[in-house]
Each structure stands twice: as structure tokens, then as C-alpha cells.
Design goal:
Blueprint (H helix, E strand, L loop, with lengths): L1 E8 L8 E6 L2 E7 L5 E6 L4 E3 L2 E6 L18 H11 L5 H17 L2 E9 L6 H13 L4 E7 L10 H11 L3 E2 L9 H18 L3 E5 L9 H12 L5 E5 L2 H4 L2 H14 L2 E4 L1 H7 L15 H6 L4 E3 L16 H11 L5 H9 L3 H7 L14 E4 L4 H7 L3 E6 L2 E5 L5 E2 L8 E2 L6
Parallel strand pairs: 1-4, 6-7, 7-8, 8-9, 10-11, 11-12, 12-13
Antiparallel strand pairs: 1-2, 2-3, 5-14, 14-15, 15-16, 17-18
The protein binds zinc ion (ZN).
Length: 425
């Protein structure tokens, strides 16, 4: 007998009246009116069943540290990095583990079951690396945590960083990171991209660099990243995160750059909440939005995902692990208000992000892992509009989080007893 039969769900691709049958933690059948016995049957009542949310860009070593040792007064990236530098010597492994585990609980409650987190390797003790490797094992039953060795202070600028990066990879960190725009010169930035891509190629690793997170239109490290990807045969395994300088670049240059990114199979990650907050801080008016060119990259065939990046840390004082909030912000900042545009913003926090992480067994189809989220919405657009309640979150076919449906109970004569704020059909 199967373990779970979920009846009458709507899928993100628009199929309705779909049943999903689960056995031994895997999906065995997805079709209308499945005739089977299961230990548990749940009626989805036509609500949206989606694969879990995936956050492709986060900093779990810094999360929930807001106010330690002080808040970011200027609101800039550079003060955030300085503040993190003040906090680092006072960090303990226990405190990092405790905060990270607390965040993972929030994430699961929001249907966020896979996170790629950068971890700072510019501390010779590699305290944060040890802490997050421990967290990765602890959360394995309910959340996939993938780690990126991130030289926050610059792999060339910070003494010993390259050696520490090698150590972190040996310890079990999966992905090679970088931050070329924070190196001392443009040349050093390009050199750091070459060194780090060669390291990744030699070790068979993916690459995900903080790249051009600046309003300076001349910050063009994404070009080096694409060229090194082609030279080393890393197509499909390399990601440029942030890419905010592309917002300010000359259109002619971008018309050459985007096809190069596509040719190299480089993925792009925008971090809408953070980019709209940190960028444009040196502007008076008009103030730039500072998010990369999301619709143009998507139209050219580049795989684009949205990340949360920060929650209550030196760079950002808000956030709750809600990837629908991330999608909504991306939609607004990029003005992606067409039907296709809004759906693409949902994909940016689900399937597109899963592709970047090379997640195994992701999706609602036979053979895939039985990880999915039942939302109080009928389609992806409504899910974004309502920041829909996560009615049930499933991991390997078991419910790991529940949220009651949002309902209003109005006790007045002539008013309906229940208000349904889903759009009329
Ligand atoms: Zn980041």
C-alpha cells in the first residue's frame, strides 16, 4: 500500500484535478483520479501544489545577527562588510549554529526546503565553515543546504584566503565562490575570477560568485566569468550572483554581453530585496533601482533565479524566509507585470533556482522526491499576490509544517460568514 494519496491538486503548469501518489518517500504517480489505496489521503480541494521553494543565494553564517554589534547606519554594502568584519572576531560556533537552525525552522514553515548559502572563509579559524557543515548534517532530513566557499574580503586582497578556501573545500564545502568587484583593482578582480574558475575546474566544482555588486557601470567581471567558463568547459555549472552593475551599463555594451552569457551557459541570480535596498545609495535623484536586467536576460535564454540573500544581518534588517516576498519584490522592481512575467517570477524561486543548485529529484513527477508545498492559492500568480499561506509542507511524503488557511469570520447580519479573497473564477 502507498503512504500518501493527495487528491484534486492544481499544478503550477495549470493542470487541475490532479492526484499525486507517494510511496517510500518518492512520487510514484501523477494523474487524474488515481485508483489506489494509501495509508493517508488528503484532499487538496483544488489548491496549488508546487515543488518547494529554493533559495539559491543566502548567507546563513550572518543570519539573525541584526544589531550585533551595531546596526548599519549608511545602509550601504561597504558598511555592511565593515560591520561583519567587526562582528567576526566575536562569533562563536555555538551562536552561528543556533541562529542557523532557527532560520532553517522559519524556512521549512515557509515551504523553503533547499538553500544555497555562502560561508565566509576569510577567517583562519574557519569557524563559520565548521558551524555550517554541522548545520548541513543536522537539517538533512528536512532541508537541503548547499555551501559556497566565499572569500568575503577578496581572495587576493585577504592574506591566506585562497589556502583557506582550499581547506574549506576539503572539509566538505561544495561550491567555489568569489567577489571580484571587492578586489583592489579591476585587474585583480579579473585575476581572481581566473584563479577561482581554474580551482573549480581542477576540483570538479560548481562556481557561484558575488559579481559586480556595485552601481559602477564599468564593473565588468561578469564578462571575465563568462569567458573563463567557456575556456575551462564549465558551461552550466557557473553562476553570477547580483550583477547589479548591469543595471547601470551602457545598452550597446549589454547587447554584446548578454549573448556572451548565454553562449557560456552562465546562470544569473538577482537578489531583489537586497539589491533595491543597498544599491543607488550614492545617488541623489533619480535613484537607480540597482537590480540586474532580469527580463532581458530571461528573453535571451539565460537561466535567472531570485535569492533572498539576507535576513536580519549587517546588510538587511528585515526578511522571514518567504520566497514569495522575494518573487513579489523582483516582479515589482523588474516591472514584470505581464501574465508570463509574473509566472516567470514564480519559476525564479522554484524551478530556475533548483537548476542552479543541480538539485536531485526536484519536481512533481513520477520518480522525484515527494517534496512539495500546498498553497492557499489556485495558481502561481495568485500565490505571489497573496503571499499565500503554506497549508501543508511535505518532505519525502511527510508533513513537516502546516499553516491554517487565512479566513475572515464576520459576524454581521447580511455579510457572508467566510470571505474568500482568492480572485473570482
Ligand atoms: Zn550575497
Amino acid at each position: 500500500m502507498a503512504d500518501l494519496l493527495l487528491r484534486n491538486a492544481t499544478l503550477p503548469d495549470g493542470r487541475t484535478g490532479i492526484d499525486v501518489l507517494v510511496a517510500a518517500g518518492r512520487i510514484v504517480n501523477v494523474s487524474p483520479r488515481i485508483n489506489a489505496e494509501a495509508a493517508q489521503t488528503i484532499d487538496a480541494e483544488g489548491q496549488l501544489l508546487t515543488p518547494p521553494f529554493v533559495d539559491p543565494h543566502f548567507h546563513m553564517d550572518a543570519t539573525l545577527s541584526y544589531g550585533l554589534p551595531r546596526v548599519n547606519r549608511s545602509g550601504t554594502l561597504l558598511e555592511g562588510i565593515a560591520l561583519w568584519g567587526e562582528l567576526k572576531p566575536a562569533l562563536t560556533q555555538e551562536a552561528i549554529v543556533e541562529r542557523a537552525l532557527a532560520y532553517c525552522d522559519w524556512a521549512v514553515a515557509k515551504g523553503l526546503l533547499a538553500i544555497r548559502s555562502h560561508v565566509d572563509v576569510c577567517d583562519p579559524r574557519l569557524l563559520a565553515v565548521e558551524a555550517l557543515l554541522h548545520v548541513r548534517e543536522k537539517v538533512k532530513p528536512y532541508l537541503d543546504l548547499q555551501l559556497v566557499a566565499f572569500p568575503q574580503d577578496g581572495v587576493l586582497r585577504s592574506a591566506g584566503a585562497l589556502e583557506q578556501m582550499r581547506r574549506a573545500l576539503k572539509m566538505g564545502v561544495e561550491v567555489v565562490g568569489g567577489i571580484p568587484h571587492f578586489e583592489r583593482t579591476m585587474n585583480d578582480g579579473a585575476e581572481s575570477v581566473r584563479i577561482l574558475c581554474e580551482l573549480a575546474a581542477a576540483e570538479g566544482r560548481m562556481v557561484d560568485m558575488h559579481c559586480d555588486e556595485t552601481d559602477d557601470p564599468h564593473s565588468r567581471h561578469i564578462e571575465s566569468l563568462a569567458v573563463q567558463t567557456l575556456r575551462l568547459g564549465l558551461q552550466g555549472r557557473v553562476t553570477g550572483s547580483h550583477l547589479t552593475s548591469m543595471h547601470s551599463m551602457d545598452n550597446y555594451y549589454v547587447s554584446k554581453l548578454i549573448p556572451l552569457m548565454h553562449e557560456a551557459g552562465v546562470h544569473a541570480i538577482a537578489n531583489p530585496l537586497i539589491n533595491i535596498t543597498l544599491q543607488g545609495r550614492h545617488d541623489t535623484y533619480p535613484k537607480r533601482r540597482g537590480m540586474t536586467r532580469v527580463p532581458e536576460l530571461m528573453a535571451a535564454g539565460v537561466n535567472v533565479a531570485f535569492g533572498h540573500d539576507c535576513v536580519m544581518d549587517p546588510w538587511y534588517s528585515l526578511g522571514s524566509g518567504d520566497m514569495l516576498e522575494v518573487a513579489a519584490m523582483g516582479l515589482h522592481v523588474a516591472q514584470m507585470t505581464s501574465q508570463d512575467g509574473m509566472r516567470a517570477c514564480f519559476d525564479a524561486v522554484t524551478v530556475n533556482a533548483a537548476k542552479i543548485l543541480e538539485l536531485d529529484g526536484y519536481g512533481i513527477a513520477p520518480g522525484k522526491r515527494a517534496d512539495f508545498v500546498l498553497l492557499q492559492a489556485r495558481d502561481p500568480i495568485e500565490a505571489i499576490r497573496l503571499r499565500a499561506a503554506r497549508l501543508k509542507v511535505f518532505r519525502a511524503g511527510k508533513v513537516v509544517a502546516e499553516t491554517p488557511a487565512a479566513t475572515a469570520r464576520i459576524d454581521l447580519p447580511g455579510r457572508p460568514e467566510h470571505v474568500d479573497w482568492r480572485a473570482p473564477r
